[in-house]
Amino acid sequence: MAISTVIFDMGGVIVWTHWEHATEPLGRAAGMAPEQVLETVLNSDTHLAYMRGEIDTGEFASSVAASLDIKMPADELMGHWNSILAPNLEALPLLERVKGKHRLVLGSNTDEEHYKRSAELQPALALFADTLLSYELGHCKPDTAFFTSGLEVLGVSPDECVFIDDVAENIESATSLGITGIRFESMAQVELELETLGLFRGAP
Predict the structure, then answer these.
(1) How many angstroms separate the Cα of 51 from the Cα of each of 74, 89, 139, 180?
(2) Which residues contact 83 (CB under 8 A, 6 or more apart)?
(3) At residue 118, does pLDDT exceed 60?
(4) pTM attached to this predicted model
(5) pLDDT at 202 over 90
(6) How many CB atoms lie within 10 A of CB 92?
(7) How far apart are CA 204 and CA 201, in angstroms?
(8) Any idea what the CATH number is for the domain that residue 53 is in?
(9) Which one, of 180, 42, 115, 197, lies nearest residue 106 by Cα?
């Protein structure tokens, strides 16, 4: 079946994530190395639950503060959390080109605060009429349930889709279901691979 749908990851592809912008101030507050903060927060069950939409922002902020043994207002902590984000300024031309020919979908492991802030920083996100967000789906990549649930929401089959992500494990999960996968390195590289797949054939 011909490809109709192109699914882009957000973090590390359309929006850059600079974790040191959060881990350094939180580390200073906790008396911990930034690397230790990253390990404590990102690899926690709390972070996974937040990305799956199982807890709200207030619960997440309280849990992070407790895990780091710091007293910090939730809005200040979440300000650090959101400070990691920056737009990939090279994304817009390719996304516009894809949208002109195919269904453009955002498929991301994210939380409500990061998604809201990303939309404020990255105008290209306005091009996505369809979104598959972990905190709405209740599943995170690389769990295949993220993709099976997403395909059901979109009403498409795996062989109609291309998925672009910067994490190899996520690509492997998608391709195990029959989705065509592209490991992101740069927008130019992704555009070339999409051209090779024939996605822009007949485009002006």
Answers:
(1) 17, 25, 8, 25
(2) 21, 22
(3) yes
(4) 0.95
(5) no
(6) 17
(7) 9
(8) 1.10.150
(9) 115
Rounded CA-CA distance 118/87 in Å is 8
Average pLDDT over residues 4-11: 98
Please name the residue ranges forming H helices in 52-203. Answer: 57-68, 74-82, 91-99, 112-121, 134-137, 144-154, 168-175, 187-196
**pLDDT tens by residue, 145-190:** 999 999 999 999 999 999 999 999 999 999 999 999 999 999 999 9
Comparing CA positions, the residue from 181, 106, 178, 111 lying closest to residue 148 is 178
Contact 4, 156 (CB under 8 A): yes
CB contact at 8 A, 165 and 141: yes
Q: Determine, yes or no, domain membership for 201.
A: no
Rounded Cα gap, residues 145 and 13, in angstroms: 22
Domain range for 182: 5-16+86-196
